[in-house]
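A protein record in our archive is deliberately plain, so that people and models can read it alike. The tokens are whole numbers drawn from a learned vocabulary of local backbone shapes. For reference, a complete record is included directly beneath this paragraph.
>
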Amino acid sequence: MEQIKRYKEILFGFALGAAMWLVDAVMHTELGESVHGESLWTEIFAPHPTALIFRSVYVAVAVSFGVFLWRTNWRERQLRALEQAVIAFQRQLDAPALRILVAARQLQNRNSIQLDETAERLAAEINLDARLIDELAKKYLEFSRLVQEGKTAQAIETLRIIETWLAEQKSIAKS
């Protein structure tokens, strides 16, 4: 099913060519009853050599049209995938940044000058999130370089690697 979605334009071109083949066969059957009197099935599956050449050209033109549409839409699909990946990446940066802000405010609002257990825990969370954001920013620079060079597929793969790395870091932090 994924292949059908991926190559739907090419399949559309092939279907268009097959429809043109069928219409031409029906036309030949209707127009040629008095000339050679062949049946529709014969005209579809065993046409005269000249009709076969013309119908093959119809199919080739239609499939070429489908390939052209596929190539045009492929770039658009790649850019959409890249846009979705960038949005997901930004969402990944939002949570640690918000936690840092909340933890910093909580530390600032404490009355005690000495660090108690809560303050130590908050300071550790701030440190962890700050390192996480720093690492994400470094990885984002690599992603950004790939996008600027036009290497869309590699950029998307880099984002997937970042997502995997981030999931690993979250599981380590929970441990």
User: Anything to note?
Assistant: The CA atoms of residues 2 and 30 lie 40 Å apart. Residues 49-108 form the longest helix (60 residues).
